[in-house]
Amino acid sequence: MNNDHKILIDELVKLLEGGSAHAPFKDAIAKLPANLRGIKPANMPYSIWQLTEHIRITQWDMLRFCVDADHQSPNWPDEYWPNEAEPANDDDWDKSVKQIENDLNEFIDLFKHLTTKPNMKRSWSD
Q: How many whole angstroms separate alpha carbon 91 and alpha carbon 44?
C-alpha cells in the first residue's frame, strides 16, 4: 500500500472515531435522559431513537457489505428507519448502542488491516 492510501485510511479512521468535526456518538448520547429518546424535537422528522436505529442499521449494512460477499442490504428506505419513535425498553436502547459501538470498532479494525494486510481477501475484491 502506498503512502497516499495510508494517509487516506488514517483520515477515515480518525473521522470514524470522532472528535474532529463532531462529537463521538458515545459522547453525544452519554447524558441523554431516557425520557427524551422518543421525543421528536419541533420541526424535526425523527426522534433520537429513530436516528440511533438508523445509524445502527446503516453502519451494520455497510460493514456487512465489506466483509460478506453474500450480504443482502435492507430495502431502502423502509428498512433503514424504525417506525417506532421510542425504544420498547432500556434493554433495546442498550443493545442498539452496543451494536453501534461494536460495528464501529470492527469497521475501524477493517480499515487498519488495509494498511497492515493490503493483500487480505475481502468480499468485494477479486
A: 25
What separation in angstroms does the CA of 106 have from each of 3, 88, 97, 112?
23, 27, 14, 10
d(CA 61, CA 73): 6
Q: Which residue has the cell 425498553?
A: 89
> pLDDT for 80-112, tens place per residue?
999 999 999 999 999 999 999 999 999 999 888
Peptide bond into 77 cis (omega under 30): yes
Q: What angle do CA 121, 55, 86 make, to 5 degrees?
A: 145
Give the Cα separation of 95 and 100 in Å (integer): 9
